[in-house]
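To the wet lab folks,

You asked to see what we're planning to order before we commit. Fair enough. Below is the target structure as tokens, and below that is the sequence we designed to fit it. If anything looks off to you, flag it before the synthesis order goes out.
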């Protein structure tokens, strides 16, 4: 398995991976493939990575993650949001998602990002250093699943807003 930047030709395979990864998941409304597409079309992906297996013609996308800028109190913040993160169902629990998140966080730091937020399972994302912090909120989103990972000492106060592409509906 290798991790590389998403390329335009990956779009159909990424859509299938994201759709299949979230199919039947109780907390999903099925909008994740549309979110990825909306971020891509808006040029709002700071970083989009794929995990691939095989080489050349037999290369297959088995995972995908996207990171996009978030605002804090309506202003650019230097912070990013992680997600959606997806791994093909038959390859889940093999470390692919973790490798995508780890590589993405390393790259975000190298790009000068000030921190990252995620809306997800605390049990999963805690292993990467994410934690709940009352200084940052995400109005309208479940607070128990909203976590932050500062890349320095500072965690700003304010309300985080994701790109409008996150709210495309099912």
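Sequence we intend to order:
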């Amino acid at each position: 398995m290798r991790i590389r930047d998403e390329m335009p030709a990956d779009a159909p395979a990424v859509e299938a991976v994201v759709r299949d990864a979230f199919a039947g998941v109780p907390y999903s409304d099925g909008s994740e493939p549309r979110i990825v597409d909306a971020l891509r079309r808006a040029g709002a992906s700071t970083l989009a990575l794929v995990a691939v297996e095989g080489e050349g013609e037999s290369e297959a996308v088995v995972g995908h993650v996207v990171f996009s800028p978030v605002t804090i109190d309506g202003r650019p913040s230097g912070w990013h949001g992680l997600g959606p993160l997806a791994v093909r169902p038959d390859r889940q629990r093999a470390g692919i998602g973790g490798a995508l998140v780890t590589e993405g966080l390393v790259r975000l730091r190298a790009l000068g990002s000030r921190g990252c937020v995620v809306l997800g399972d605390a049990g999963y994302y805690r292993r990467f250093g994410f934690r709940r912090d009352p200084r940052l909120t995400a109005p309208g989103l479940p607070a128990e699943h909203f976590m932050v990972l500062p890349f320095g000492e500072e965690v700003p106060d304010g309300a985080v807003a994701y790109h409008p592409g996150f709210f495309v509906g099912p």
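Structural context that might help your review: The helical segments are 11-22, 32-42, 96-110, 122-125. The first strand starts at residue 2 and ends at 5.

Thanks,
Computational group
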